[in-house]
Design goal:
By secondary structure, the chain is of the alpha+beta class. 26% of the residues lie in helices and 29% in strands. The chain has helices at 113-132, 166-180, 195-202, 217-228, 233-236, 251-259; strands at 9-10, 16-17, 22-23, 25-27, 30-36, 40-45, 54-58, 62-69, 78-84, 87-89, 96-98, 101-107, 153-157, 185-189, 210-215, 241-245. Bound molecules: adenosine-5'-triphosphate. Residues 148-261 form the DAGKc domain.
């Protein structure tokens, strides 16, 4: 892929393409200027109308960025989309939670679609690289930036957990985030009791950077028991484990989340 430009990296093209009549770099809110620094992506809407024109996105909240061609083959422009999960106030509640924000830009510097895609890839690369380099913030329990890249994950889902919705929760909420963050994963849907325990007992753990369990408490206990059943249990039990609530009670997931805050 294209080499990352050095930072700070200002948006280069603010003019309009005279032939196409479209901004060379644009955002859904219209022609855009901005700057990528080591810690933030700042977007400035170029507009004479009143209202908020500048938005700052912290790269500590960015999980990924990808470049792509649009669906219309006649469109010479290319796109890059950055995915952020900043803390935001919950609707009708005093609490805050991470909420998804997607920022999409169109690049149309020239008439050559490939050159535009390369430019978009340069942007995506720069945003991803700068996001990975963000220091973790212990006060909000952010360990994401400390995760090794690429992070190869085995995800175990018990389809019967809770009200039988764990798999639906995975495809509806988790799968998209893994794609946005370019995390390669293998999904294992457990087929019977002790399936996960046996799998983990025999697995080549050097292939995985983390095991993620989407279930109630039961499947996590199976995985821990599987790791402890191994001859190399002292090393095996060091494998990073993740728990995503998919069961009915989710007591363990809730308390892990509570203590990580
Ligand atoms: N495909 C499967 N069919 C039947 N049992 C399974 C299957 N996969 C896993 N199990 C077993 O189901 C048990 C319960 O699973 P889990 O804790 O994930 O769900 P839950 O009991 O609904 O959740 P909670 O603990 O929140 O009430 C586990 O101990 C596991 O051994």
């Amino acid at each position: 892929s294209a080499p990352a430009p050095s930072l700070p990296f200002p948006f280069q093209s603010l003019g309009r393409d005279s032939e196409l009549g479209t901004p060379l770099l644009s955002h859904s809110k219209g022609p855009t200027a901005g700057c990528l620094t080591e810690s933030a992506l700042t977007i400035q809407r170029i507009s004479s109308s009143p209202g908020r024109t500048k938005v700052v996105f912290n790269l500590t909240d960015c999980i990924g960025c990808r470049a792509y061609r649009g669906p219309d083959s006649a469109d010479v422009g290319a796109y890059f989309t950055a995915y952020f999960y900043p803390f935001k106030r919950r609707w009708m509640s005093a609490g805050v939670a991470r909420q998804r924000v997607e920022q999409c830009f169109r690049v149309a510097l020239v008439q050559d679609p490939l050159a535009n895609l390369q430019e978009a890839e340069k942007w995506a690369h720069a945003i991803r690289d700068a996001s990975v380099l963000q220091p973790g913030d212990a006060s909000v329990g952010v360990a994401y930036t400390e995760v090794r890249r690429p992070c190869r994950v085995m995800i175990l889902v018990n389809p019967h957990s809770g009200r039988g919705q764990a798999l639906q929760l995975f495809t509806g909420h988790v799968q998209g985030m893994l794609t946005e963050a370019s995390v390669p994963y293998t999904l294992v849907i457990t087929e019977h009791q002790n399936h996960a325990r046996e799998l983990v007992r025999k697995a080549d753990l050097s292939q995985w950077d983390a095991l993620v369990i989407m279930s109630g408490d039961g499947l996590l206990f199976e995985v821990i028991n599987g790791l402890m059943d191994r001859e190399d249990w002292q090393e095996a039990i060091q494998t990073p484990l993740g728990i995503l609530p998919g069961g009915s009670g989710n007591a363990l997931a809730a308390s892990v989340h509570h203590y990580s805050q």
